[in-house]
Design brief:
The chain is α/β, with parallel strands linked by helices. The protein has twelve helices and seven strands. Helices cover 55% and strands 11% of the residues. Strands 1-7-6-2-5-3-4 form a seven-stranded mixed beta sheet, with helices on both faces.
Length: 353
């Protein structure tokens, strides 16, 4: 084999994960985000008679009989109250001395994800079909998932916690800490909020290895190897960057149509943390174009076909153990996923004709 063995890699030497400065920034963030969400919840509830009429008028004037603005505002109302209830519940757990009780916090996470998806179904008509959820059983497994929209982490949480009844350990960007429930509950559970702007990746990669090191038969480690939501501009930029440093690799990934080339370091670090866990790859279709506000409004103007979420399990013995070979393997899996997404999207277009 070529490249560095995960077991011998120098990635991920330990460092202090939390400091007094980080704690203070977290408290300042929550002092803003939590009251803001509660204010939004109250304003949307009390102002419902007003925004319902104004939103409907705007939609109808613009020729949108399915009322996408009204639907989005209705979802915002339900989201803000679900966030408020989640924060209040987490505060009660803290008062009762249960802030370290993972079982209760996983139950709260499951409730939050399930009801947010119900809110999306009621307000926006969003439905989800899950194919092969048994691929997640038994754990421990690490899931490498496609990243196409703001809802990816929510949908994957629903699949893992509700459909598969497993416990997720997420790798998410730290910007998502602006969401109060993710901030409070997410940091009480074993997740890692990645600092994508860190000048030294070593502590971040070590944290990912540590995250998976104690996974058991009911645990799923989850990472989105693309690192950001895919779109044509980001795809071109990613391929140009790879071409500057690895011409051989760019030949493997330059023909992608829907996904972004995966970033292998974080995925490799998670597998390095657990020497025997299998891999599950996950892709979905139905979120295309929903990464902007305009795209969401356009999508809601027509009935939304069910989101199709597909999982496939790969035995650990089929995953190369050297970094170079792993990168090539991951590129191959992502190219296969890109082809599967393309086929599924073509089938959707044919169905809608």
């Amino acid at each position: 084999m070529t490249g560095r063995s995960w077991e011998r890699s120098s990635f991920g030497q330990g460092s202090e994960a939390h400091s007094g400065a980080i704690y203070c920034r977290g408290m300042k963030r929550r002092l803003v985000s939590i009251p803001a969400v509660m204010i939004v919840a109250i304003v949307l509830l009390l102002g419902a008679p007003v925004w319902l009429v104004i939103g409907a008028v705007v939609d109808l004037v613009r020729g949108r009989p399915r009322l996408p603005v009204v639907r989005l505002l209705a979802f915002a109302l339900l989201w803000s109250w679900l966030e408020t209830v989640g924060v209040v519940a987490s505060a009660l757990l803290w008062i009762l001395g249960r802030s370290a009780d993972h079982h209760r916090h996983y139950a709260l996470q499951r409730w939050w994800a399930r009801n947010l998806l119900r809110a999306l179904r009621v307000t926006c008509g969003l439905r989800i079909t899950v194919e092969n959820p048994e691929a997640l059983h038994p754990g421990p497994v690490v899931m490498f998932a496609r990243h196409a929209s703001l809802a990816d982490s929510l949908v994957s949480a629903y699949v893992v916690t509700t459909v598969a009844d497993m416990k997720p350990r997420y790798v998410l960007k730290k910007e998502l800490l602006a969401d109060p429930c993710l901030d409070v509950v997410g940091q009480r559970l074993p997740n890692h909020f990645l600092d994508r702007g860190a000048t030294d990746s070593t502590p971040e990669l070590q944290a990912l290895s540590t995250l998976t090191s104690t996974m058991d038969e009911r645990t799923v480690g989850i990472i989105f190897p693309e690192g950001t939501r895919a779109n044509p501009a980001k795809r071109a930029k990613a391929i140009a960057r790879i071409s500057e440093v690895d011409p051989e690799r760019v030949g493997r990934v330059s023909s992608m149509r829907h996904l972004l080339p995966p970033r292998p370091a974080g995925a490799a670090a998670m597998l390095r943390g657990h020497s025997t866990c299998d891999v599950v790859v996950a892709w979905h279709v139905g979120f295309e174009g929903l990464d902007t506000f305009g795209g969401i409004l356009a999508a809601l103007s027509d009935p939304i076909p069910p989101i199709r979420f597909v999982l496939r399990r790969i035995p650990r013995s089929d995953v190369p153990s050297s970094y170079g070979d792993f990168t090539a393997w991951l590129d191959g899996e992502w190219m296969r996923m890109d082809d599967e997404v393309d086929t599924a999207l073509l089938a959707r277009r044919d169905e809608r004709r």
